[in-house]
Design a protein that fits this description.
It is a single chain. It is built from 17 helices and seven strands. With about 450 residues, it is α/β, with parallel strands linked by helices. Helix 8 runs antiparallel to helix 9 and helix 12 runs antiparallel to helix 13. The C terminus is likely disordered.
């Protein structure tokens, strides 16, 4: 078993300092190279790498293994030429010594990029990275910073906010004071962290893509979504006006309830408009309408009724709104008495109405979706099924009298492909299971 102990030098530091051309092969040649590199640059970590290669080779030789130690260098002009030079030298070493495995010795992350080139030519049993003990932390930090700066996304995420902070803080501290400047910077950084933490950028990208696709495809829901957004703003404005009319009411419960009571009709209309547009898109499309889109308008009405009823109940209990009064003329009586509905009765009416609306929506959705499924199946589906089953008009099974006697061409081709042994050679092989035919000969 021959093991190749190869020392990798991607940037050709050894060649530039000693003037020697790689590869350098052999125990004595590498040992002399250590002296040359050490005299040229005693502070170079390549000296330790060469000594580590000799140590690994000596240990393997003590275990009665045939060892070939070599130093392979690249080119300092470009990384592509360096990798190609290393690959060419490895091909020559493998052709001359035919190693069964290799042990790679490196001294940096830059040299470790050559390991895939070695692995593509010979089996790598071990990778030994030499780090000078005094410079271990410094070197690790250096390579971490180098990898960090090489990542464009990390640079934009970390370095850009830090740079903006260092530029804006002096201006804010000069104009508004250090405390105000620090508060503003902290607020912006917090918003940025929340923005990245909740993946708002991905959500905005997806929303823009969906909006663009909707505009290009001419969907009705684009218009209804705009109308729904306008109704939503109207509802928020009406709710804010209702809160302003409450006056100096202690706490936030009554203003929040008043806001819900006044804004829920407009918000419900906005939701109904948006759902109607989506329902029209489903109706225009080729696929059948899904039951969820049919049931959505009824659910919106039911939820709005419940919210309206509960908010009216709480406001009436606090005497913010008056009780619901039904005039006598609407009741169909001749007396002048009016029917005053209490808070509990009003709440019960709204809740019952919401339940009825939701049940009606579920029934309509099931009926429409069921009829759509029947239409899809239709007579054609039953006829197709009958044709597949071979049923005749009277329910009997009609068969081709030649079907059992002669299989069709497709069945024969499938059977031939499924069992390739059904040939003359296969028949002979089946007859004698211990015979392997032409392969033995």
């Amino acid at each position: 078993m021959t093991t190749l102990v190869v020392c990798l030098d991607r940037t050709d530091d050894v060649g530039r300092k000693t003037g020697l051309r790689s590869p350098v092969v052999g125990w004595e040649a590498v040992r002399a190279l250590v002296t040359d590199v050490g005299l040229a640059d005693p502070e170079d970590s390549g000296v330790n790498t060469l000594l580590e290669s000799l140590r690994v080779a000596q240990n393997l030789r003590d275990e009665n293994e045939e060892v070939v130690v070599a130093v392979v260098s690249g080119d300092h002009e470009s990384m592509v030429s360096a990798d190609r030079a290393v690959a060419e030298q490895l091909d020559g070493l493998i052709a001359d010594y035919e190693p069964d495995s290799a042990v790679v010795v490196t001294d940096s992350a830059e040299d470790e990029r050559l390991i895939p080139i070695v692995e593509s030519r010979v089996r790598v049993d071990s990778v030994d990275r030499v780090v000078v003990r005094q410079a271990r932390d410094i070197e690790s930090t250096y390579y971490l910073l180098k990898q960090f700066l090489a990542d464009e996304e990390l640079r934009q995420t970390v370095l850009v906010p830090i740079g903006l902070t260092l530029l804006v803080f002096p201006l804010l501290a000069t104009l508004s004071g250090p405390a105000e400047g620090a508060a503003a910077i902290t607020t912006v950084i917090g918003l940025f962290l929340l923005y990245k933490g909740f993946n708002v950028d991905e959500w905005l990208t997806r929303l823009a893509h969906q909006t663009r696709e909707s505009l290009y495809s001419g969907q009705v829901s684009v218009v209804t979504y705009v109308v729904a957004a306008g109704l939503t703003f109207v509802g928020l404005f009406v709710g804010a006006l209702g809160v302003s009319n409450v006056g100096d009411t202690p706490g936030v419960v009554i203003p929040a309830t008043q806001f819900a009571f006044d804004s829920i009709p407009w918000l419900a209309m906005a939701a109904l408009t948006a759902s109607a547009g989506r329902l029209l898109d489903e109706a225009i499309g080729e696929e059948p309408i899904r039951s969820s889109f049919l049931n959505l308008p009824f659910i919106v009405v039911a939820v709005s009724l419940v919210v309206r009823g509960f908010s009216a109940y709480f406001l009436e209990q606090q005497d913010v709104i008056d009780s619901f009064v039904v005039p006598a003329a609407e009741l169909g009586v001749l007396s002048n008495e009016r029917f005053v509905m209490g808070a509990g009765e009003r709440l019960a009416l709204f809740v019952v109405t919401a339940i009825v609306v939701s049940l009606v929506g579920a029934q309509v959705a099931s009926v429409v979706s069921g009829s759509g499924g029947d239409d899809d199946r239709g007579d054609g589906g039953s006829d197709a099924k009958r044709a597949d089953d071979g049923d005749g008009p009277d329910g009997t099974v009609e068969r081709d009298p030649t079907a059992d006697a002669t299989p069709n061409r497709e069945d024969r081709s499938l059977s031939d492909r499924a069992d390739p042994e059904l040939t003359d050679g296969g028949a002979d092989a089946n007859a004698n299971p211990y015979s392997f035919g032409d392969r033995d000969r």
